[in-house]
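BUG: 3D viewer hangs when loading the predicted structure for this chain

Environment: internal workstation, default settings.
Expected: structure renders.
Actual: progress bar stalls at 90%.

Input used:
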Amino acid sequence: MSPITRVLLADDHALVRRGVRLILDGEPDLTVVAEAGDGAEAIEKARAERPDLAILDIAMPRMTGLQAARELSRLQPDLRILILTMYDNEQFFFEALKAGASGYVLKSVADRDLLEACRAAMRGEPFLYPGAVTALIRDYLARARDGADLPAKAITDREEEILKLVAEGHSSREIADLLVISVKTVERHRANLLAKLGLKDRLALTRYAIRAGLIEP
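Structure tokens produced before the viewer hung:
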């Protein structure tokens, strides 16, 4: 049986929280342990309850979901964060990624996407709705067209190969088999990548790989 993910839910509309709670609490592997009506309260509740996953609305009083996400990423680096919003807005989407969110879910399709997004976040994988994927590609192409520098190549070709395969979801054993090297060598390259790029986990490596154009978002 998979471990139960403890969820903090923050939205300034009690009705929205109730609806989202119904979706989550109906699942055996998800349970809402705390609710908050604004970003500041979300931080207090996260400190008290130490949830595994925070689902944050963007537009909240006192402190927005994006501000709360930035602070929570700093205070609790292991906490996974999802942004749940009515805004199909590229700027907010990019801000959410910068703030440390694992995914961006539109309220209009929460009944369809939210559970998948929660589970992806807990696996350390990004969750992007279709419009966000389009935005990422458009942003990437615009930067390439304008001659803007993509991240400087700080890694070797072999590390780049391994980064790409990690970001695509392959295990160390699968990567070792594909590249005909030992699992230990893969793990060493992986550790070097995290250290060189100043990243902490597979999700962060995936974000880097998308920005560097190694994988399609």
